Amino acid sequence: MFRHIREDIASVFRRDPAARNAWEVLTCYPGLHAIWAHRLSHWLWSHGLKWLARFNSGLARWLTGIEIHPGARIGRRFFIDHGMGVVIGETAEIGDDCTLYHGVTLGGTTWDKGKRHPSLGNNVVVGAGAKLLGPFSVGDGARIGSNSVVVRTVPAGATVVGIPGRVVAEVDPSERLRALADRLGFDAYGLTRDAPDPVAQAITRVFEHVQQLDERVLALCRALHQIDERMPENGLRGGLEPLELPDFCLDEDRKRESGGT
To answer: pTM of the full predicted structure?
Structure first.
């Protein structure tokens, strides 16, 4: 038992940068208190003391704001951050090293007895306010975005967002886009594997399109320059100045060199 308690406290330090010391975690984290109360409730439930198990879980809910049915199966190093409003149903199963944030529901969609709640694999993260409803599985390492409503199986390693929840495809920026981002000092809202935002993906595609247009205009200008050398290589007619980056894209040194402020 004490080994599990030490594991739980250590998992808080790994996943919550606000944790300062073991005493604070031990006394001030309702997510931990709810998990420890559930372990007692689940033991009572498994040994036929169902009323006492429900009474203990109800008391834990009153103290922590987190409702975990005694029949739910929960793995090791489970972490509930903030915790208020979390509901975990009777037939829910949670693997090792999972994280749930406040307002998460692992619920059912039927009144029939039997398996009716989700099963989470290992290393699953469920964002605040997400609702997982039904007897489906969530693969190892999956990420469920905040306020998503998930009602079907989630593959391992996938990221799910939206209502209804949908798997968001990862987008690896092209080399052209990386070069443009370096030039502008802007990386499309930090589009990474951990944050596959659809809006950021749309901006990424706009940037790629702009880059392609720039290349085609430059090729056209060079072709016209070969036809008539009097025509500037980087402009469509005489007198055009070379295209420059706007001021907000210039670093401080280049601003000073160009006479900006």
So the answer is: 0.61
